[in-house]
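ARCHIVE CARD
CATEGORY: sequence design from structure
SOURCE FIELD: tokenized fold
FIELD CONTENT:
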């Protein structure tokens, strides 16, 4: 552990870094860098994310409206079937002696098919809502990740020149080498 501390202290005392005015203490600069990157991401990504969420909200609301319209259609069908059921029941009274069992079977089948249709429509509505929510969440995640990556790359590219970039890479390689020696 002492070797890692020595290598970090050693990295903080480079003569070329001191002459440029950069703080090479990794532990002190990482929170600052992260706060700057997060601030930039929040500032520039807020409007896009808000628009994306509003669009997804409208699509989900439209899907819900469509599902509710389908449900209303199923309710109308149910009322029609109930009216038809009442008619069948009146005919059953007339033909009770001859076809009572057949009429009861038809009544049972009509009710079952209606309930199955309603269940299927309700399941379709719930699946559609769930699917749209998952799709919206996945799109938002993907967009945020892409924006974060683009912002971070843009920040890195604008802040690092070639010489500082190469020195930073060399310093990190040396640091990882020292860490590896300690763990071995």
């Amino acid at each position: 552990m002492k070797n890692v501390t020595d290598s970090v202290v050693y990295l903080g005392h480079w003569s070329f870094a001191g002459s440029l005015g950069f703080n090479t203490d990794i532990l002190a600069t990482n929170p600052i860098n992260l706060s700057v990157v997060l601030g930039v991401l929040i500032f520039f990504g807020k409007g896009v994310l808000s628009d994306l969420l509003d669009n997804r909200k409208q699509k989900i609301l439209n899907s819900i409206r469509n599902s509710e319209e389908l449900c209303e259609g199923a309710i109308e069908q149910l009322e029609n079937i109930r009216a038809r059921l009442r008619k069948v029941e009146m005919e059953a009274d007339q033909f009770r002696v001859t076809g009572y069992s057949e009429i009861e079977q038809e009544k049972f089948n009509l009710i079952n098919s209606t309930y199955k249709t309603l269940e299927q429509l309700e399941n379709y509505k719930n699946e559609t809502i769930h699917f749209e929510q998952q799709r919206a969440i996945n799109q938002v995640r993907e967009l945020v990740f892409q924006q974060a990556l683009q912002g971070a790359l843009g920040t890195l590219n604008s802040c690092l020149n070639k010489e500082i970039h190469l020195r930073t890479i060399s310093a990190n390689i040396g640091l990882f080498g020292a860490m590896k020696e300690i763990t071995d």
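CARD ANNOTATION: DSSP finds five helices and no strands in the chain. Residues 29-138 form one domain.
SHELF: design records, drawer C
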